[in-house]
Specification:
This protein is an alpha/beta fold and 409 residues long. The chain contains 15 helices and twelve strands. The two termini are 27 Å apart. 46% of the residues are buried. Bound molecules: uridine-5'-diphosphate.
Length: 409
Amino acid sequence: MDGANLFDYREVVGPDVIEELTILASHVGGRTIKMVNSTAVGGGVAEMLHRIVPLLNELGVKVSWEVIKGDEPFYEITKSFHNGLQGKAQIFSEDEFEKYLSVNRMNAKEFIFEEDLIVIHDPQPAAMILHKSNMKNRWVWRCHIDLSRPNAQLWQFLRPTIEKYDAAIFTSPLFSPELAIPQYQFFPAIDPLDDKNRDLEESYIDGVFEKYGIPRDKPVVTQISRYDPWKDPVGVVQAFKLARKYVDCRLLLVGDKAADDPESDKILELVRNEAGNDPDIHILLFSPSIPLEINAFQRGSQVILQKSLKEGFALTVAEALWKGRPVIGGAVGGIPAQIIDGHTGLLVHTVEGASLAIRSLLNQPELAMRLGENGKRRVRNEFLITKKLKRYLLLLLALDKPRGTIFLD
Ligand code: UDP
């Protein structure tokens, strides 16, 4: 149900939660926000903005969303910024920094920043703040990646820019670097009523597996993620091959290509090489994928993997838990906030660990079911979009008193 309104969420979260949002909104209603990021489709940030923007508008906060424009070399550079900020050792050239700044400068000329609050998502558009002219509004940098151990050269370049913001938001305190500005924590969230997460008929799920030629004659173990080294798709294939020596199953890898990701073709080739001609391994590439079909893949799988080596949050984990699936996740980034090991899923550190976890879940359906049920409860309490709306409303209040002690939870 795309375009669900607030009232529709009462069924899922209960009327009290909606009433609380309405009361909070009455204190900040009429204010304006501009969200800025680097892609309208693909990846978790765009996914989330598509829902949060209309719902905040419904609550009376006027929110607009703009996407910056960049050419291929710019996205190559911001991709390496992304990797560098997550700790990859590499040297950046002055030309790369200059290109990054010039694309930000060009975009800033096209935008009018007159809203009360400007929320800039991730590093790609972060330098737009250098062109801030309205001195009264507040600017917040929303960082969705792990910045706890950034590449030193890159961080030396970016840090003074980030410190021009009024505040920064991180997915976890574990991800935040030392900064001279206030920091807040926002968990990401999923929308239980959108096509990615709403209930589906079993016949539709069957149809999707059939459409892509994936027999359901044996359990299907699935990872849905961009073909990115941090998502470790090669490790997923290796873990599957080890597990399949002991328990018969299929592997489904689903990934789509974001407009700002030039690296995925290379990774996909490595994955295909690792998979060889194994008829039980199914590798799909979409550009972009269809949310209802992703939903069907998640619901129709016996086990969901998210074997990341480095992660922001992993919306895919929340999505799968919400569907009551048992999830195996890499013990990195925001995944342990969602998966409490042995209670709402299984955390793993290695290929061998992932393969053992696959075997445990396929051999013990009761364990799998219990983890799935607990996981669904955890998502209901912490990771639904209504919680996210509350955090944005509290942020507007908190920015009135930036040095005050306000917990956004
Ligand atoms: N996704 C999708 N199709 C794909 C792969 C991923 O729709 O082929 C979605 C996935 O369901 C999730 C989002 O893209 O909603 C990815 O968010 P996540 O936080 O897991 O990872 P990111 O790509 O942002 O690192």
